[in-house]
Request: fold
Amino acid sequence: MIRCYFHINNGQLSSLSCPGVGFFAAYSGNRGKHRNNPDSIAISKRGPLPPGKYYIVARSRGGWKTRLNDFYKSLESGSDRKLWFALFREDDRIDDTSLVGDVERGAFRLHPAGHNGNSDGCISIVSLSDYMILWRALVKSPPVMITAQLKAFGTIQVY
Reply:
């Protein structure tokens, strides 16, 4: 299993460090005051993802409506959603949502950056070619069962 580390450093860029795979320029949170800002972790759809351990899992493709929506959003954003992974935080339920105080956050993803530069709390890797290095390593890594229903390709420790 690939283990990665991401630091919410209050800068416009941080590094996603995946020993044995590489170091990748990345960010979490929307451009401006929320990007990589630890004070913004409780701001839904704008701030970075909260600290913790995240499992890198396959993103559900959904039904035909979801796939059609993903197709159009991929064109609009410039980031192909078929390449995205979901990030499930290790908390009381390992799933697609997490509480930060009283605020429910969720739908965290690992993906290549799109043209608008926003991440909505995902971890976005700046370079598509860098992302593809990590993507190939993850899909070649044998998945590990985390629960009876959930397989992970790796983890990201966010601090």
In short: The mean pLDDT is 92. The chain has one domain: 2-158. Residues 75 and 81 are 9 Å apart (CA to CA). The radius of gyration is 15 Å.
